[in-house]
Amino acid sequence: MVKKGQRTTSIKKGVRGSGVGVRRKDQSPIPNPQFPIPKAVVLLSGGIDSSTTLAIAKSKGYELYALSFDYSQRHKIELESAKKIALALGVKKHLTIKFDLREIGGSALTSGMEVPKSGVRGQGLGVSSKNQSPIPNPQSPIPVTYVPARNTIFLSFALSWAEVLSAENIFIGANAVDYSGYPDCRPEYLKAFEAMANLATKASVEGQMKFRINAPLINMTKAEIIKNGKHLGLDYSLTWSCYDPQPKQLQVKAKAKAEAKAKDFSTLTSTSTLLIPCGRCDSCLFRAKGFKEARIKDPLLR
User: Do the domain assignments include residue 5?
Assistant: First the structure.
């Protein structure tokens, strides 16, 4: 019983009972166990696009599950970058799956073929201007850096993990503006894969979930991608883009050439701190163009 004039304290219902606990002013809300944080599987190569995609997924509030691949590619510096990015962005789990695409070959990234240099404009591939988003010249050949069906392989692994995690959203850093014309980076391909994913999984056909393939960078120029990443606080010095890294010190150059001639690039990974971007492959040129148009200094080249 409350006496006349006595102050009372009102406790509203629902806050504790609903699990939506609120802490002090400078603390984060207590998660509601009835509405868990949604999960997302994000393909992470360690390059600009995949790293920015991971940052975007984080900004949207997803619990992040990053997926990288050691497929016996030409170099593995990008995998070191992927580890750094995953750590910096606080992913829940970073999984690297290993398999050997060199057994199949068919690409300069998985065989002894030379990586073409300074070939972006020479091949007639789409390169954006400041206010324009061209498409690749259909008469131009797809460059030899294309790895046969790579995104289909990667997305299939991502789909498998997503089904196990009950994660409806898969993120990929595909881009159809500043890119080398790879067919598995196009919107129509991603739409088709999403349709297939919802026909080919137990969770989907039983109505438990509907998978979505998210490509937030698909219509951005490289400059726009970099600006978005900078806005989200992404450290691009942790990323790697070059297809054909070169030795930084003269004394290791001869050894690296011998390894390349023998089609064995595995030892290059152990000397990543001595390697620098070639500056002339498609990936380097797109990166340089992006930073130039964004008017930002590439921290990797400082």
Answer: no
Asked, for residue 231, whether it belongs to a domain, the answer is yes
- Domain assignment of residue 201, given as a range: 39-301
CATH of the domain at 194: 3.40.50.620
Residue 14: the pLDDT is 39
CB 186 within 8 A of CB 193: no
For 228-255, the pLDDT digits (tens) are: 999 999 999 999 999 988 887 643 444 5
Based on DSSP, count helices (H) and strands (E) in the chain, helices before strands: 8, 7
Domain count, the chain: 1
Q: How does pLDDT run across 79-117, given as a tens digit for each residue?
A: 999 999 999 999 999 999 999 999 999 999 999 888 888
Domain contains 278: yes
Q: 292 lies in a domain?
A: yes
pTM: 0.77
pLDDT per position as a tens digit, 109-161: 999 888 888 654 433 344 334 333 333 444 457 889 999 999 999 999 999 99
Contacts of residue 136, defined as CB under 8 A and 6 or more positions apart, other chains included, come to: 124, 125, 126, 179, 181
CB atoms within 10 A of CB 93: 14
Residue 207: how many CB atoms within 10 A of its CB? 7
Full DSSP string of 1-49: -PPTT-------TTTTTTT-----TTSPPPP-TTSPPPEEEEE--SSHH
